[in-house]
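Tokens as discussed.
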């Protein structure tokens, strides 16, 4: 495999960091050498109704079970215990909307609302073990719904509010949910998004849903279906309400979150109640070292794992104050984020490389217009961060004072797995490296035969040991769970390329599979191909990513139309529209090219790899298995044509 050492910035380990590194290593080594006593201690970051009998049951790999027979409740840990220990009046969430509207809710206020909504769910007949779907924008009802579901023991599945009807329908069908919680609509960059309408078309493709709860966010007129649709506010019981938190088993599912895989069908990643809670609370503490009166802002969407773990669960478990921002980062102006940092004196700020790259384009003026001195720590997640972008973030936003916590993790890992850790001892940072493993994580870099590669060589990143935040399984698909993640290397395979340098630092080098990272969003090429094919005009399609300076990757589609279809400009528009209306806007290809044929193997498999190589002007590799080599020439010509048109 190629040598990746040119990416590595070598940095002499200065003396002043030596103690920090030693302190980190001491704790890390303890976690690996004495895992039982380590987790016996660290699991107390959470309150348990009943202590576990065994820290780890690894008798049936890869179905590892942590904190066996332990009993707890996530909503209790997020709320009740803080109310009882002097944090009643502390601010839990500061909600800020795009237009500047603001709501501040204390731990007591959140507790009150969660109890009321939990009672409403019980009154609707939702009970322990049920599955519910949440399709909400970034409003307080989102964490309230998540916590109320956890309180009564119903596993929720949050569907990102940017997804379209068929993406929602697929998730409803896989989870067989009876209840969907949504809102009338929301705003995005000043535009109205009609969420309830999208839910209605999704439900038309499903059969399990009997109830839809609609929160009023923007006062949009919506059609309420008699007997099925109910307004959130109408369900809230009067008077004081207390719902006893269910005693959940450590290995009962807390939530299911669907994520893209290498087939058209998204994977339902199931997270546990116990291990997940222990993992997110500890990783946040270790990596960011939040102080009690800090203000934390994770500028992700609650609908993705980043928001689940680090907007909702970890900050609440730790009793912190956290910001929820509903809106776009450049609306109404490119200083939106910095205005919020200044106004709310944010101390810890966590975002994605794509967001930073987007803002870099507008220049330093916007951050420089604001007082950002409250910032103490900056974080990033979602894709590799280019060293130049890292430096801009560090210097312009952090005033060269704040460490950059580059957290590498995945939907499946529950929380950070590689990250610098302030609380354990901050080793010197190298721009672009996620540095070292979190306690309990044993990363290895392997070649295609499963052998460890030498330091400095690129390979496949695997995690050799189970960790508490590891997902339990894939919903309804235990075989796929084994096959996708464990069969290839006999360890948890991340799907990422990485390299370890001579100082032991890890560098992530992008996905090694058919998954795209577009603005930090994880999208499957085959999902997009399936959506394009479903438009009825298309015979064949190949989707792949091309490097993009801002988004990380852009989506490219090569399409062969069905015989007799008239090639015209409109078809491209309507294909884009079709993808927008089925999967959602984030999936819309940046470029669609029409060709007469795509390169295929003799068995009829479209060779996406060849199309991509030709498109990127790279050597297409072995094309001896190609059945129709003429198609390669055709793609070349199509690309030439595009280039000429771009020049005109
Ligand atoms: C994929 C997981 C985990 C929350 C957001 C994404 C990429 C994530 C980093 C990072 C380089 C990163 C990987 C990973 N990724 N963080 N710090 N450096 N790459 O969750 O949607 O499950 O995507 O995001 O490719 O496999 P996700």
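Sequence:
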């Amino acid at each position: 495999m190629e040598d990746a050492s040119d990416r590595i910035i070598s940095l002499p380990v200065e003396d002043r960091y030596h103690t920090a590194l030693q302190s980190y290593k001491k704790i890390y080594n303890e976690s690996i050498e004495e895992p039982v006593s380590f987790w016996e201690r660290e699991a107390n970051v959470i309150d348990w109704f009943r202590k576990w009998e065994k820290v780890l049951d690894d008798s049936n790999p890869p179905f590892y079970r942590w904190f066996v027979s332990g009993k707890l409740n996530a909503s209790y840990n997020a709320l009740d215990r803080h109310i009882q220990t002097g944090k009643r009046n502390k601010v839990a969430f500061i909600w800020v909307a795009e237009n500047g509207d603001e709501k501040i809710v204390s731990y007591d206020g959140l507790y009150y609302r969660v109890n009321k909504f939990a009672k409403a769910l019980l009154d609707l007949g939702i009970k322990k073990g049920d599955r519910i779907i949440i399709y909400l924008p970034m409003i307080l009802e989102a964490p309230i719904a998540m916590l109320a579901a956890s309180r009564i023991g119903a596993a929720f599945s949050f569907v990102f509010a940017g997804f379209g009807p068929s993406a929602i329908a697929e998730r409803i069908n896989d989870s067989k949910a009876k209840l969907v919680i949504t809102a009338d609509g929301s705003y995005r960059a000043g535009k109205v998004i009609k969420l309830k309408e999208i839910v209605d078309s999704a439900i038309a493709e499903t059969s399990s849903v009997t109830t839809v709860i609609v929160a009023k966010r923007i006062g949009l007129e919506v059609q309420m279906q008699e007997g099925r649709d109910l307004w959130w506010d109408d369900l809230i019981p009067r008077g004081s309400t207390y719902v006893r938190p269910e005693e959940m088993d450590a290995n009962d599912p807390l939530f299911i979150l669907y994520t893209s895989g290498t087939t058209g069908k998204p994977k339902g990643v199931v997270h546990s109640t116990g291990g997940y809670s222990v993992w997110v609370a500890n990783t946040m503490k270790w990596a960011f070292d939040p102080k009690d009166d800090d203000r934390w802002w994770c500028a992700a969407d609650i609908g993705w794992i980043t928001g689940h773990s680090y907007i909702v669960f970890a900050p609440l478990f730790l009793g912190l104050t956290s910001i929820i921002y509903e809106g776009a980062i450049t609306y109404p102006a490119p200083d939106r984020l910095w205005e919020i940092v200044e106004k709310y004196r944010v101390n810890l700020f966590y975002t994605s490389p794509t967001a930073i790259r987007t803002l870099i384009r507008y220049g330093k003026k916007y951050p420089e217009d604001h007082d950002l001195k409250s910032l103490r720590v900056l974080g990033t997640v979602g894709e590799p961060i280019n060293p130049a972008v890292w430096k801009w973030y560090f210097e312009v936003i952090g005033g060269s004072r704040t460490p950059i916590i580059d957290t590498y993790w995945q939907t499946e890992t529950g929380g950070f797995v590689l990250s610098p850790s302030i609380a354990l001892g901050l080793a010197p940072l190298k721009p672009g490296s996620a540095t070292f493993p979190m306690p309990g994580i044993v990363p290895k870099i392997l070649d295609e035969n499963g052998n460890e590669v030498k330091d400095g060589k690129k390979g496949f990143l695997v995690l050799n040991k189970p960790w508490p935040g590891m997902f339990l399984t894939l919903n309804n698909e235990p075989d796929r769970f084994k096959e996708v993640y464990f069969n290839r290397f006999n360890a948890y395979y991340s799907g990422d390329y990485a390299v370890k340098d001579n100082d032991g630092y890890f560098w992530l080098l992008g996905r090694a599979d058919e998954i795209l990272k577009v603005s930090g969003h994880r999208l499957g090429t085959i999902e997009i191909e399936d959506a394009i094919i479903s438009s009825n005009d298309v015979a064949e399609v190949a989707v792949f990513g091309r490097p993009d300076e801002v988004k990380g990757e852009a989506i490219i589609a090569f399409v062969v139309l069905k015989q007799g279809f008239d090639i015209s400009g409109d078809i491209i528009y309507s294909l884009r529209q079709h993808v927008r209306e089925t999967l959602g806007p984030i999936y819309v290809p940046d470029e669609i090219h029409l060709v007469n044929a795509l390169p295929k193997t003799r068995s009829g498999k479209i060779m996406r790899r060849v199309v991509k190589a030709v498109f990127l002007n790279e050597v297409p590799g072995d094309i001896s298995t190609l059945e129709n080599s003429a198609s390669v020439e055709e793609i070349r010509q199509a690309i030439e044509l595009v280039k000429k048109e771009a020049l005109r």
